[in-house]
Amino acid sequence: MIELNKEVEIERAHQESMSVLFFYTPFCSTCKIAERMLGIAIEANNLKEQTYKVNLNYFPNLAEKLTIQSVPALTIFKNGQEVETIFAFESVVRLNSLFHKYKES
Predict the structure, then answer these.
(1) pLDDT tens profile 5-23
(2) What is the spatial distance between Cα 88 and Cα 1, in angstroms, rounded to a whole number?
(3) How far is CA 12 from CA 18, 28, 37, 50, 84, in A?
(4) What pTM value is reported for the model?
(5) DSSP-derived 3-state class of residue 56
(6) Are 77 and 21 in contact (CB under 8 A)?
(7) Which one of 67, 68, 83, 90 is most buried, by most CB atoms within 10 A?
(8) Taking the alpha carbons of 83, 105, 80, 1 in that order, is the dihedral positive or negative?
(9) d(CA 91, CA 18)
């Protein structure tokens, strides 16, 4: 996962054919668990170059714009459009299903 630290980097990531943004905060223990599950799903789906993580403490305006009300959160973008956001990661199997849904469409 590539850490994004600037708004311009986040905007560029949105414009890719498919990108996955993982929103977290450093002291969130649930975020740490979600990030481990996400790492497994990313590797299984070969999405390392398309997956980014964003510390929401530094981007409150982005959280408001994307209506992210809690962390961890995962937003998938296709061609600049937000297509889905999830807050409950549940399992690696669910993340795999989610990635397959958007990789193929």
Answers:
(1) 998 998 899 888 899 999 9
(2) 19
(3) 11, 26, 25, 11, 18
(4) 0.92
(5) helix
(6) yes
(7) 68
(8) positive
(9) 21
